[in-house]
Design a protein that fits this description.
Length: about 160
């Protein structure tokens, strides 16, 4: 469970750190600034190709270090980012701007999707998947406040 939790933190923390330390460098929006018929962005400017690629790479590297294989790590990172993109898409449809807070929606899809798909290769049972997702939610909320106080995140959530 600890390795899975660390993979979640790496996958979801890497784009935040990249945004802070790389600024606008190679920060191409995944949705190419596409606006839906409702006049709202498809995903929003904070979802970038750079963040996606770095998250997948960092998670693959972390999994390889843990002896889980880079392929599992890359899949895990990609699934976590897919869950995060689902959250962003949902928030835009609900009229919530990029960076707005949606407790649960901000954490659950990006945690449950990779944990559920990768549970077997990680040797996890369903109750461990749920516990790990819950721990990620709690840690993400706490770490977000710390990163905000260190001026790494733009919002404390």
């Amino acid at each position: 469970m600890l390795e899975a939790l660390i993979l979640l933190l790496v996958a979801n923390g890497t784009p935040v750190l990249a945004g802070k330390y790389l600024g606008n460098y190679a920060a191409w929006p995944l949705d190419a600034n596409y606006m839906m018929a409702d006049g709202k962005p498809f995903l929003g400017k904070s979802k970038t190709l750079r963040g996606l690629l770095l998250a997948v790479f960092a998670t693959a590297l972390t999994a390889e270090i843990f002896g889980l294989g880079w392929q599992l790590g890359a899949s895990f990172g990609a699934l976590s980012m897919l869950g995060d993109l689902f959250s962003s898409f949902s928030k835009r449809r609900l009229g919530m701007p990029s960076g707005s807070q949606a407790p649960g929606l901000d954490q659950v899809p990006e945690a449950l999707l990779p944990l559920a798909v990768c549970a077997s290769p990680l040797g996890m049972q369903w109750f461990q998947v749920l516990i790990t997702a819950g721990l990620f939610w709690l840690l993400e909320v706490m770490l977000s406040r710390v990163l905000y106080s260190l001026h790494i995140r733009k919002h404390p959530w």
